[in-house]
Amino acid sequence: MRLTLLGTGDARQVPVYGCECPACGLARSDESLRRRPCSALIECGDQRWLIDSGLPDLTERFPPRSFNGIFQTHYHADHAQGLLHLRWGQGLVIPVHGPADPEGLSDLYKHPGILDFSRPFAEFETRQFGELSVTALPLQHSKLTLGYLLEGEGRRIAYLTDTVGLPPATLAWLQREPLDVLVLDCSMPPQPQAPRNHNDLTLALQSIEETGAQRGVLTHVGHTLDAWLLEHRCELPRHVTVGWDGRII
Ligand SMILES: [Zn+2]
Ligand SMILES: [Zn+2]
Ligand SMILES: [Zn+2]
């Protein structure tokens, strides 16, 4: 099983348009430090699925029939805007399995084009796709959001964004068996007050600890966290790393 982080940025991405902070400055001069909309590609056996669809160039990156479909975490624009282009394709159908969000994004449900939204995941539902098993786990966010537990080829990876902390039932589900890797929302450096909608580093480390994951990988990283890490990277625990676009897990 192979998970590729396609994008690791928050809704603003890095560099933030117009921002002159050190992290945005560095990302402007070094392509490898850029952070695109948060998304990933999971490959297991003959299965190849996108997790989220916020990249604006999906049609160029993924030719027709080069992937099976999309596991959608939620319908905020930074996670779903690529669907607005993808839908106008022809000659194929792309299943989009996500939460049963009555609104979706923009007019996607009204004009789905080649996208098939007909089989949303129920919370804690497990589906089998060839050798890949996928379980939808509810998260805590400002919109109905699912994380995904990916199991196959003897590995167990959880991909959980966007969230602030973890609902107790989701945490209990993850604690049933050892987790190899937890890819987790960490949008901000430690905040003086409890954050809303997204993890700061304090909450993210706490969740990694509670799940007992062998490795933690931070994603949905905002520029303030990147700037903070320029001075504090050595303070991260050894089993926790910061994700980068293109990184393979
Ligand atoms: Zn987001
Ligand atoms: Zn900045
Ligand atoms: Zn969101």
Automatic annotation (TrEMBL):
Residues 36-220 form the Metallo-beta-lactamase domain. Its EC number is 3.1.4.55. InterPro entries: Metallo-B-lactamas, PhnP_MBL, Phosphonate_metab_PhnP, RibonucZ/Hydroxyglut_hydro. GO terms for molecular function: phosphoribosyl 1,2-cyclic phosphate phosphodiesterase activity. Keywords: Hydrolase. It holds the Pfam family Lactamase_B_2. The keyword Hydrolase applies. This is Phosphonate metabolism protein PhnP. It comes from Pseudomonas reactans. The gene is phnP.
